[in-house]
Amino acid sequence: MIDLSSINPVVLAAALMVAATPILLAAIGELVVEKAGVLNLGVEGMMITGAVTGFAVAVMTRDPYLGLLAAAFGGAAISLLFALLTQVMMANQVASGLALTLFGLGFSALLGQGFVGVSPPRTAKLDFGFLSDLPILGPILFRHDPMVYVSLALVAGVWYFLNYTRGGRILRAVGENHEAAHALGYRVRRVRILAIAFGGACAGLGGAYLSLIRVPQWTEGMTAGAGWIALALVVFSSWRPWRVVLGAYLFGGIIVLQLNLQAAGFRIPVEYLAMSPYLVTILVLVIMSSGRARKTLAAPGSLGRPFHATG
Amino acid sequence: MLRLEKRPQPSAAWGWATPVLAVGLTMIAGGILFAALGKDPFAAIKMIFWDPLFSPQFAAFSRPQLLVKAGPLILIAVGLAIGFRAGIWNIGAEGQYIIGAICGAAVALAFFPAPGWYIFPLMVIAGAFGGWAWAMIPAILKTRFNTNEILVSLLLVYVAEKILAAMATGRMRNPDGAGFPGSRNIAQYPAASNLEIIAGTGMHWGVVAAFIAVIFAYVMLHRHMLGYHVQLAGQAPRAARFAGVAPSRLVVLCLGFSGALAGLAGLFEVAGPARMISIDFNVGYGFTAIIVAFLGRLHPVGIVLAGLLMALTYIGGEIAQFMLGLPAASIQVFQGMLLFFLLALDVLSNYRIRLSRAEAA
Question: What domains sit in chain A, N to C, each tagged with a CATH number?
């Protein structure tokens, strides 16, 4: 029987921020990578690597924050494999990204064997004093774990970096036109490798957020397409940091709503509800890529093109 | 300092040598991995590459498995390779495989238990159609709305997996199955089963289809105008447009062809080795086929060899799992490493490596 009254909008909105955080983290990292002109399709692989390294370190040290830190390093480390392939060995970016995902899924399953069924240390929720005690707004906005706020701070940082710093302008120049950037004396390859590592660290954090805080448990293949949704989110955002937040919270909302409908005993079989986030992602991609919307898309000019300095 | 110099033409010699070299390097890296897991690396490598074919203990069982596992890999990879050559990235073959299996199984279950020579051919058509239709979603979204086919085809894999779960626990569940998830056993339904054609070889209709697809792809790529267009679109998209290649027609053709082949692979699997629609019916052939396509250098004949080698790692992996307690995931890592080495070594066929004095790079 369907019982919609069991869905509490405040709880829903609060859960939305938590559900959105992993894809938000991964997407903001990928945004920087793509702004530098590199298309890394390995987000899923980097996320799951972060999920397992973060989980393993957190369980062994009993400290979730060390786990998150390790996840960022793990994600960055595996992203450097992609950097090596595409920036040094001049391999195809699409194929290398796929390789990263396939490898990451296997590698994480291997590392995570001993951790199935283990509970990670708990991450405390922050308490903002009277803010957390506000009715409605308190539970929605001010009673989360620190990573929810870190992810938002990261978006602000990326926005500031890309628009108001010299480094950000260089990165964008490299992404828009790598030949011109090279002619101006910027180190195209170095900028891109750094961007890829940053993207890997963010994706790793996003993965660890899943395994340590949102779920919290380790299961094989637990990212279940979150990395691909993050990639779609970057397109949705038209490569603008604040729109990534909007997109991520929109998807967070869909994920949470879908789970709540399942719990409320909605008459549709759970499988059909569970496919909704993927279908909505496709729908959003269609809307963003077609017709008039496309003109405002503004994908970086050199996105996905290999750069080989001659001379 | 080492410097890369682009070759005017990719080197043909390195083109042949890199896959072999990549396999060799993967064996070394894999051996190190197995040693790190506390297993004897030499025994593990021998078990993966030698024992399935020649060990008196396993060969009788595992040799036929070679064709059983290589069949779907080759069938899917041949289709993918044509698209990859044209720069059209269908990475959702796993989803097309699932939908093909569901459509084929639906035909079988609809006729059950009637006899009839026409049932299996109808299933084949349904399987190909299912895969084709599932691949048409990214194709049409790409041509109509310019939506990225990589993301759409991949996201549809997750959708297909959910449909599979819904079918296995819902509409297709075996009414005589005591409530367990999973459909009727199609392999035990004579009019619909895809059994071995020659007993003891592993040769079933899917393997036959794979070889037909290989020949078809070879002729198309090397003897037909369409193959030339595919090459041109991949290497010089602008030139292709001037030569009169319609990009959207190529997208529809490539995605449709690879989708239909993946759907066929799914159908032959569900009516044969897998026996039924179940929640865990798909085992990642659609993704491994991507590795097979690259390992075979996107060439139909190369793909046959690559498919057989990949099948060997699956079977050998199972033996090593059984004998040495090697974790199942280590074979997945092994296959992933192979793709890494392959992509990295491709630098040798596209570039010359020159030694030069360290100057402004």
Answer: 4-118+138-295 (1.10.3470)
